[in-house]
Amino acid sequence: MPNFVFLFLEFVKVGLFTFGGGYASLPFLYEMIDKYHWFTSNDLTQMIAISGITPGPIGLNMATFAGFKTMGFCGALIASFALILPMIILTTFVFRFYLKFCESKIIKSILYVLRPTSCALILAVGLRLFYELVLNNDLTFKNINYIGLILISFLFILTFKLKRDPIIYMGIAALIGIFVKFC
Amino acid sequence: MKVSFWNLFKLFLKIGAILLGGGYVIIPIMQSELVEKRKWLTEQELCDYYCVSQCLPGIIAINISILVGYKTMKLLGVFASLLGIAFSPFVVILIVANLLNQILHIPFIDGVFWGVNLSVIVLIYLALREMWPKSIVDKFSFFWFFVILILSILKVSPIILIISSIALGIVLYFAKRGENNA
After folding, report:
1. Between chains, do A120 and B149 touch, taking CB under 8 Å as contact?
2. At what angle do helices A105-133 and B107-135 cross, to 10 degrees?
3. Are B159 and B148 in contact (CB under 8 A)?
């Protein structure tokens, strides 16, 4: 099968199985790296950062970006359309009885289990990034990126003082990054 | 104001261009544009739409747009609102992605992304911190969180984990109903 069919199917999957906001689609995007090598882990980290500060929903931005990285303009179109397609079908279908749907006990029960699942999947992505960027893919702790570790610890401390606006953290990290590269 | 394809498209074009961040940000914008200025929706309807969007898979902002589009003009409205909301993000990402290819080799930019990539870990933590209180509500949800975390680190596919969670939710529902009937 040609590549664009896989791209389409993968993003239909993301649209259909993402629960709990844009970051919840990350586990699927990381799985695509391992499965198809369409883009690298480093590419994806950049996509997350850029999608957070450009206009529009993060999940849609990441899909557009990932599609573009994979197959250029057509890839961006295919990925965005595939992502939205299941939502169009499900949401218009539910429209007629949406109040009943939301209050039904079975949906509540499913969401009760799905919410911790989303949290765990997102944390696993965070740990993977920590492993790649800070431990440099080495679990024996011999290759630790110490400057990176200090930067992250510093940003973590800031999260207790500042708002959750991502651009603040990225701005600070960018400035420190420039400083580190030129010193 | 009368609802037409063009009006709906223009409104969502505006929302898509000024929307920054997650689905929560869209509520105040829609409140002022749809409920107060145009009166296409009541406050209660917007509130309900937000609630339903959270119960459905996908992106919250997109699901709300579909609901608003469908309510105002059926499928044509869905088309107009989605085209509107997706247009600016799509164009901006294409421009940035193209630019990025040309500037990534500059050492200055390399430094920027060295820092920014690390900050993504903190962004993920922030997203998680916001979801946590709604998600981990009792001992079982905490336990389930750990089970999924471990399976996910062992590289079990996310789709399998999500489908099993949905299945477990259904099983729990019937188990509870059985208990109440007995």
Report:
1. yes
2. 150
3. no
Which of chain A's residues have a Cβ under 8 Å away from the Cβ of B16?
Answer: 55-56
User: What is the domain range of residue A155?
Assistant: 141-183
Task: Kindly state whether A121 is in contact with chain B, defined as any CB-CB distance less than 8 angstroms.
Answer: yes
Give tens-digit pLDDT for A58-81. 999 999 999 999 999 999 999 999
User: What is the 3 state secondary structure string of A21-76?
Assistant: CHHHHHHHHHHHHHHHCCCCHHHHHHHHHHHHHCCECHHHHHHHHHHHHHHHHHHH
The residue whose two tokens read 């980290």 is A45
Please check whether residues A79 and A157 belong to one and the same domain: no
- Torsion angle defined by CA atoms of residues A109, A110, A111 and A114, in that order, rounded to the nearest 10 degrees: 130
The domain limits of chain B are: 5-103, 107-181
ipTM given for this complex: 0.92
The beta-carbon neighbor of A122 closest among B55, B75, B124 is B124
Mutation site for A-interface testing, chosen from B27, B93, B154 by largest number of A Cβ within 10 Å: B93
Nearest-Å Rg of the Cα atoms of chain B is 21
Same domain (yes/no): A88, A159:
no
**Count of structural domains, chain A:** 2
CB contact residues (below 8 A), chain B span 7-46, against chain A? 16-23
Could you report the average pLDDT of every consecutive run of 10 residues in chain A (183 residues)?
89 94 91 93 93 91 96 96 96 87 89 95 95 89 90 92 80 92 81
pLDDT 10s digits, B28-57: 888 999 999 998 999 999 999 988 988 899
Substitution target in B114, B138, B150 with the highest count of A β-carbons within 10 Å is B114
